[in-house]
Amino acid sequence: MSGHPNPASTDVHDEHARASALKRAASASFIGNFIEWFDYASYGYMAAVIGEVVSPSEDKTVQLMTSFAIFAMSFILRPVGAVVWGMWGDRKGRRWALSWSILIMSGSTFLIGLLPSHATIGVGAALGLLLLRMIQGFSASGEYAGAGTFLAEYAPPARRGLYTSLVPASTACGLLAGSLMVAGLFAALDTDAMHTWGWRIPFLLAAPLGLVGRYIRVHLEDSPVYQAMRDELPDEQPRTNPFRSLLSEHRREVLITFGVSCLNAVAFYMLLSYMPTYMSKQLGFAEDTATMATSVMLAVYIASIFVMGHLSDAMGRRKMLIIACVAFIVLSIPLFWVMSHAGTDSSGLLLIIGCQVVFAIILTANDGTLATFLAESFPTEVRYSGFALSFNGANAILGGTTPFIVTWLIDVTGSALTPAVYLTVVALVALVAIRASRVIHMAEIGQTNGDARS
């Protein structure tokens, strides 16, 4: 018998190892994002309750805006976190950054569940909530960008869009789980119970979930693309500052990806986080009904996101993002008009859910493509930093402020259509940005520029 290894057997073993590594990377990315957005959903869907607990006021609009202001303020550290996590992710590794981001996120979320009320510590309740939300924001700035970068580098080039769409899918699963839990709590508990201890339950669950996610991530290897880049660097060569390199050599890419990310920032928070508040406060539906309607939209979002990721592989990222921009520009105002005139009976509710389903499908055309587009827009040595800065910059300026801005716009104008106008304007900005984009750095993650699907 020959002592030489069987080439076919070696190839099969290598293929199995790659498939196993990709599966672990996908699982780790999914769990981390799921936990993060489960936490964010819990806050967004219970904004009115939390507002009453930490900052009671006779004026319900002021109370709600205070709650959303804290939500928006939590995004202040997103750009700072983008720089820090991007630098850590590009210099220390994707796995290192992701394993710490999930720990900080779950810890700060757990502490929100232990926060005393305004009746116990006065204004300290609101200040404590703000501090913990800002820590959440700092952690979140490394989570989505890190998971998107990690999966894009692990995935086979021909199916990169499909695999990377797992990141927004896990986001929606977290929102859906949060939505269903909040709906269940509203249905099972009376007002006093919700205000004293019921609202804390989703936040307290973050601790065990976070520990599970960290365990999985610690036992991963960094992406082959990142490891190859590190192996090519001489041991004695000092590693450059990724952020400095990003701003000096890739300013155009940062501006374009920031502009494209603006639509995701506004549409995501408006449609998947603020919508239950819009339905209850502006359209007159009960809170549990509003949350249920959004749960339907999230289910459609999850079902559609992988289809859109696959289409981005077949049609190209740029084309998919343009389609999403045009759809938001054309349909946002008509859909909001229908919702605002639908009525609060069963037929009106079905009509509103139908409008939200259309919005969900349009949003997935953007979200199912965006993470891959951002990862493909930067070379390996600054990919985490570029993704994090553009995505989190847009979310800090426009995403986190969306519930506050639209609540203020409706209060000032008296029109329930102002959210649609705001969304349309942002879609126009994103369309200009994506039209200015070009194919960049596809060869860096396993595909030649001739095969690029940007």
UniProtKB/TrEMBL annotation:
InterPro entries: H+-coupled_symporters (IPR051084), MFS (IPR011701), MFS_dom (IPR020846), MFS_trans_sf (IPR036259). It holds the Pfam family MFS_1. It is found in: Cell membrane. The chain crosses the membrane at residues 64-85, 97-115, 121-141, 162-189, 201-220, 254-272, 292-309, 321-339, 351-375, 387-410, 416-434. It comes from the Bacteria. Keywords: Cell membrane, Membrane, Symport, Transmembrane, Transmembrane helix, Transport. GO terms for cellular component: plasma membrane. The keyword Oxidoreductase does not apply. It is a multi-pass membrane protein. Its main location: membrane. GO terms for molecular function: symporter activity. Residues 25-438 form the Major facilitator superfamily (MFS) profile domain. This is Proline porter II. The gene is proP.
